[in-house]
Structure to design on (102 residues):
């Protein structure tokens, strides 16, 4: 009984450490994405055509041209960033039951 409890405790400690590492990685990735989004216009302007094409493919999904208008859908997480920027709600559902950005 004590041995089983110690094993379960050890497993839970390992899981907690794994979650902590994942949280840190998520925060670092989120920071890089927000920094990229913040500098997107500057990066795009300074890029060569091939790089511009790669940036557009990275951010846009199903882009097409209708007449003189570019029609596109943003990929995640960029769609969420734009939504949060438009609504000024950077913590949607900020209660005990956090929900993903739509």
């Amino acid at each position: 009984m004590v041995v089983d409890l110690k094993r379960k405790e050890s497993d839970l400690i390992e899981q907690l450490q794994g979650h902590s590492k994942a949280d840190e990685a998520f925060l670092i990735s989120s920071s890089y994405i927000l920094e990229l989004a913040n500098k997107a216009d500057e990066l795009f302007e300074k890029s060569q055509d091939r790089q511009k094409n790669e940036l557009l493919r990275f951010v846009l999904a199903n882009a097409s041209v209708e007449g003189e208008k570019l029609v596109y859908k943003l990929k995640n997480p960029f769609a969420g960033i734009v939504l949060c920027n438009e609504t000024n709600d950077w913590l949607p559902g900020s209660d005990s039951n956090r929900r993903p950005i739509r």
Q: What stands out?
A: The chain has four helices and two strands. The beta strands are 60-66, 69-74. The radius of gyration is 21 Å.
